[in-house]
């Protein structure tokens, strides 16, 4: 029996220890700090981007490190979800353990305190008065009422006890703030769709990794349930097309979330500021049931989502919707500036024959109104921007796996009477573009420059020494075929511009130049589709948090106890103690005013302690 009792006692002790650990302030603060650090990382580092972007931005080593830590999708990681869940458990334990005591403090307020407890209060004064204890009690009660207190009295023999407090519901502030944290975190966990994360961990749900697959070819293991309680997916929807599913990026792949309706993009509209920045972009959308019935129709613009049956559709971005691009490819040094035609849609990957180079058409922009300084143009207060016209962006991969992002502008710019084709490039996404300016010949083409470059390389192979005379002679031979009507001034400008372009091509990362000949443009709207049933709870949690903080800061609890005893000569002895949880300096001043009022009525202070200072009066 004794052994069994010991075991039960030990178990209770262990549970108490666990409860103390889970409900401790240290643990809660540590978890909040970890959450703050993780949230800062998730804010600074763009989340849920394609892994190729991260590899280009950070390089192979740090890309692998950050991928292992899950920093590319912080809010989907198991460790982040675990921190939030542990914070909910810790806060719930704290509330469970302390709520009975807080409710008891709100309901009950002891009228009588032992003398030692009174002397332990932050503000204490002991006084002697000639007046009767009843009169002194009435005077003290009147003084406290004038300060907003509601004193209560208790008499035991020749001793009277007085107690009063303000901020009775101050403890409610602690309760509300803790409950708010539980509600917000629990609702965030619900919105985070923990069952889907668990399915990913157990392997029953596996993200697809081939981004070029049509929806019908995606494996069923990548599909989330149709009636998933919470999700957030994205879809890039070209004009005139319909979608009945959205995609949620997961690591280096994606999951498919079927929708209970179909989204049809009728049209996309965009307006620009004079600086070229988008002013407004609107999607005209129709929602259809699976049977083809119109459920809702309207416009979606930034901060004005469309809502239907608990699902919100936001306008998040816009991009090219698969424009058809016709390009010409010039191989640097090819004989007579020979070029080949390429054609592809934005989003496709083209392969350059057997060279090992691949070309991913990334984006097309119809307008490019940029500051003049962005492309090396001299500043002009009257015309601070320049319109470079249409452009397309693409990523080139070499046979060794290295990459560079290129940006090609369709329309040439003019400097000093000479036209220039503008080609931007950068080796990392975080780097600014560097620009090469290739002079254009007749009809705005770079064919003349490419033919001139090939002729110079041929002359160099034949042993010719570089000199101004050689540069002019070689160009004269090329221009005789390609630009026979040019004047000597035009030829001189072109040769000078060509030599500058050759210097700029020294660090050019690829052995060819692409130009844009034609395009068939199509817009696509970037829509974010969310179903977050916990959002309303989060809003109410925020209300409770603000209210709790307000109570904590502006309704401090102030407590006052007094003990009045009858002296042998018929006078009174007063022992007054008080304290406050906040604004202690202001409360100390108020306490000093009470003492001064009593002294003005004839009471004499024997000793006092105010704000941690011991002061003695009398001989």
Could you describe the 3D structure shown?
The chain is of the alpha+beta class and 619 residues long. The protein has 13 helices and 27 strands. A seven-stranded antiparallel sheet has the order 2-3-24-25-1-26-27. A hairpin with a 2-residue loop joins strand 9 and strand 10.
Low-confidence stretches: 612-619
Number of strands: 27
Radius of gyration: 39 Å
- Secondary structure class reads alpha+beta
Largest beta sheet, briefly?
A: 7 strands, antiparallel
- Please state how the strands of the largest beta sheet are arranged side by side: 2-3-24-25-1-26-27
- For this entry, what is the oligomeric state of its chains? single chain
Backbone shape: elongated
Strand content: 25-35%
Q: Cα distance, first to last residue?
A: 66 Å
Number of helices: 13
Q: Helical residue percent?
A: 25-40%
What value does the average pLDDT take?
86
Q: Secondary structure elements and their pairing?
A:
Layout: H1 2-22, H2 25-44, H3 51-69, H4 78-107, H5 115-119, E1 123-129, H6 133-146, E2 152-156, E3 159-166, H7 170-191, H8 194-202, E4 231-238, E5 242-250, E6 253-272, E7 278-288, E8 294-301, E9 306-308, E10 311-320, E11 324-331, E12 339-345, E13 349-351, E14 358-365, E15 369-371, E16 385-387, E17 391-397, E18 403-409, E19 413-415, E20 418-426, E21 434-439, H9 447-461, H10 468-482, H11 488-504, E22 512-520, E23 523-531, H12 535-554, E24 558-566, E25 572-580, H13 584-600, E26 604-610, E27 613-616
């Amino acid at each position: 029996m004794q052994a069994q009792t010991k075991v039960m006692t030990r178990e209770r002790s262990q549970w108490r220890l666990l409860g103390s650990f889970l409900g401790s302030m240290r643990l809660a603060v540590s978890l909040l700090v970890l959450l703050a650090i993780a949230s800062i990382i998730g804010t600074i580092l763009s989340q849920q981007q394609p892994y190729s972007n991260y590899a280009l931005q950070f390089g192979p080593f740090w890309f692998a490190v950050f991928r292992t830590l899950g920093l590319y999708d912080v809010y989907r990681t198991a460790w982040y979800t675990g921190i939030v869940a542990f914070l909910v458990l810790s806060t719930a334990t704290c509330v469970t353990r302390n709520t009975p005591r807080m409710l008891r403090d709100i309901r009950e307020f002891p009228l009588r305190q032992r003398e030692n407890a009174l002397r332990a209060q932050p503000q204490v004064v002991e006084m002697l008065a000639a007046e009767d204890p009843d009169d002194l009690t009435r005077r003290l009660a009147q003084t406290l009422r004038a300060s907003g207190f509601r004193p209560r009295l208790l008499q035991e023999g020749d001793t009277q006890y007085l107690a009063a407090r303000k901020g009775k519901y101050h403890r409610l502030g602690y309760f509300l703030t803790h409950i708010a944290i539980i509600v917000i975190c629990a609702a965030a966990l619900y919105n985070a769709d923990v069952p889907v994360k668990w399915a990913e961990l157990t392997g029953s749900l596996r993200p697809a990794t081939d981004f070029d697959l049509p929806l019908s070819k995606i494996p069923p293991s990548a599909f989330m349930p149709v009636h998933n309680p919470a999700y957030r997916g994205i879809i890039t929807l070209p004009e005139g097309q319909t979608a009945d599913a959205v995609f949620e990026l997961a690591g280096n792949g994606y999951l498919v979330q079927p929708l209970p309706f179909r989204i049809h993009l009728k049209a996309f509209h965009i307006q620009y500021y004079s600086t070229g920045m988008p002013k407004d972009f609107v999607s005209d959308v129709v929602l259809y049931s699976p049977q083809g019935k119109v459920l809702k129709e309207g416009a979606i613009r930034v901060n004005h989502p469309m809502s239907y049956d608990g699902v919100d559709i936001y306008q998040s971005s816009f991009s090219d919707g698969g424009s058809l691009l016709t390009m010409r490819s010039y191989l640097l040094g090819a004989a007579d500036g020979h070029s080949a035609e390429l054609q592809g849609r934005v989003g496709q990957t083209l392969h350059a024959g057997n060279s090992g180079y691949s070309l991913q058409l990334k984006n097309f922009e119809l307008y490019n109104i940029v500051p003049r300084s962005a492309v090396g143009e001299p500043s002009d207060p009257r015309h601070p921007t320049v319109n470079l016209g249409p452009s397309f962006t693409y990523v080139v991969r070499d046979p060794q796996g290295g990459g560079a992002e290129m940006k090609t502008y369709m329309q040439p710019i003019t400097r000093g009477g000479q036209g220039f084709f503008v080609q931007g490039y950068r080796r990392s996404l975080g780097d600014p573009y560097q620009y090469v300016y290739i002079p254009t010949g007749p009809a705005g083409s770079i064919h003349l420059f490419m033919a001139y470059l090939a002729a110079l390389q041929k002359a160099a192979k034949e042993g010719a020494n570089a000199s101004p005379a050689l540069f002019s002679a070689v160009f004269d031979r090329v221009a005789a075929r390609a630009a026979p009507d040019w004047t000597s001034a035009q030829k001189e400008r072109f040769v000078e511009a060509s030599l500058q372009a050759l210097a700029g091509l020294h660090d050019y990362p690829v052995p060819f130049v692409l130009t844009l000949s034609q395009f068939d443009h199509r817009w696509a709207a970037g829509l974010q589709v969310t179903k977050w049933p916990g959002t309303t709870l989060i809003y109410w949690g925020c209300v409770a948090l603000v209210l709790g903080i307000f109570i904590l800061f502006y309704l401090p609890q102030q407590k006052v106890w007094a003990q009045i005893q009858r002296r042998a000569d018929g006078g009174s002895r007063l022992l007054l103690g008080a304290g406050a949880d906040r604004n202690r300096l202001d409360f100390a001043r108020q306490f000093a005013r009470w003492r001064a009022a009593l002294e003005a009525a004839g009471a004499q202070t024997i000793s006092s302690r105010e704000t941690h200072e011991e002061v003695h009066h009398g001989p």
